[in-house]
């Protein structure tokens, strides 16, 4: 079916399975639907050539080759889909991988994390470049609601942050979510949950290829990935002796 000339909606349907053994966080097998709008102003790159194509060329390519191409949004440092990449759905070696959730594309320990700019529920802007000199703990969540999140499930995070604070080491702790600002304020209790919620920030889960949540990345004072862990393996982070 030919795409409309005014705009097209790319529906990105992803499945996130949270394999958690802690009683506080239940296993999640739901589906998350997100829609990103494309139009004549959208930046579209053909991955096979590495070149930008116009919306009209994109439209014609899909029309001539129905079902043979897939379109994936590319997320920028603000966690927004600033461009779109088009590639063949099938190759000579079989189905192409979903580049948004290919585990081989996860950040690696010892590498600098691609930059981010997040706005916390506290109204502050957290720019990774300006956070150099501080430890940063990034928590990637789905929504702040049961069974995906409980205050008890964040106890290991708040303990880690508080224990280091008592040693004179401050950690900037941020948590991504699909929730809006209003939903965050309703869901997050006044008690310490160990992180600053970042409303409407699920794009960062895409940007860093996070396929299982909750997932955590600890950055050292230079913005380099020091450790990574699922919620059930948080001791990989909490057992570190930060200085």
Number of domains: 2
Pick out the low-confidence regions. Answer: 1-30, 92-99
Query: Gap between N and C termini, in Å?
Result: 59 Å
Helix/strand order, N-terminal first: EEEEHEEEEEEEHEHEHEEH
Number of helices: 5
- Neighbour order of strands in the largest sheet: 13-12-11-14-15
Output the CATH class name of the largest domain: Alpha Beta
CATH fold annotation of the largest domain: Glutaredoxin
Largest sheet: 5 strands, mixed
Question: What oligomeric assembly is this protein in?
Answer: single chain
What class would the helix/strand composition place it in? alpha+beta
How many strand segments? Answer: 15
Structural topology:
Layout: E1 7-15, E2 31-39, E3 44-46, E4 51-53, H1 55-64, E5 69-75, E6 81-88, E7 90-91, E8 94-95, E9 117-119, E10 125-127, E11 135-140, H2 155-166, E12 171-176, H3 181-187, E13 196-198, H4 203-207, E14 215-219, E15 225-230, H5 235-238
Parallel strand pairs: 3-6, 11-12, 12-13
Antiparallel strand pairs: 1-2, 3-4, 5-6, 7-8, 9-10, 11-14, 14-15
Question: Would you give an account of this structure?
Answer:
This protein is of the alpha+beta class. It folds into two domains: 7-101, no CATH class; 105-238, Glutaredoxin, CATH 3.40.30. The chain contains five helices and 15 strands. The strands form five sheets. Strands 13-12-11-14-15 form a five-stranded mixed beta sheet. Strands 4-3-6-5 form a four-stranded mixed beta sheet. Strands 1-2 form a two-stranded antiparallel sheet. It is elongated and about 60 Å long.
């Amino acid at each position: 079916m030919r795409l409309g000339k005014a705009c097209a909606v790319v529906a990105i349907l992803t499945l996130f399975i949270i394999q958690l053994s802690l009683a506080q966080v239940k296993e999640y097998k739901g589906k998350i639907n997100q829609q990103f709008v494309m139009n004549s102003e959208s930046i579209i790159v053909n991955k096979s050539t590495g070149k930008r194509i116009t919306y009209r060329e994109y439209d014609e390519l899909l029309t001539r080759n129905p079902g043979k191409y897939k379109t994936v949004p590319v997320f920028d440092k603000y966690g927004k889909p600033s461009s779109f990449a088009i590639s063949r759905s099938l190759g000579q070696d079989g189905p192409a991988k979903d580049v948004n959730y290919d585990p081989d594309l996860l950040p690696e320990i010892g590498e600098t994390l691609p930059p981010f700019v997040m706005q916390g529920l506290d109204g502050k802007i957290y720019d990774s470049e300006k956070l150099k000199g501080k430890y940063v703990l990034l928590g990637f969540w789905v929504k702040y609601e049961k069974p995906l999140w409980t205050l008890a499930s964040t106890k290991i995070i708040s303990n880690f942050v508080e224990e280091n604070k008592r040693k004179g080491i401050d950690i900037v702790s941020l948590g991504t979510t699909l929730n809006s600002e209003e939903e965050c304020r309703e869901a997050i209790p006044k008690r310490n949950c160990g992180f600053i919620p970042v409303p409407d920030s699920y794009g960062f889960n895409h940007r860093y290829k996070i396929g299982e949540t909750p997932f955590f990345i600890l950055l050292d004072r230079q913005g380099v990935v020091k450790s990574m862990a699922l919620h059930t393996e948080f001791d990989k982070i909490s057992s570190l002796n930060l200085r």
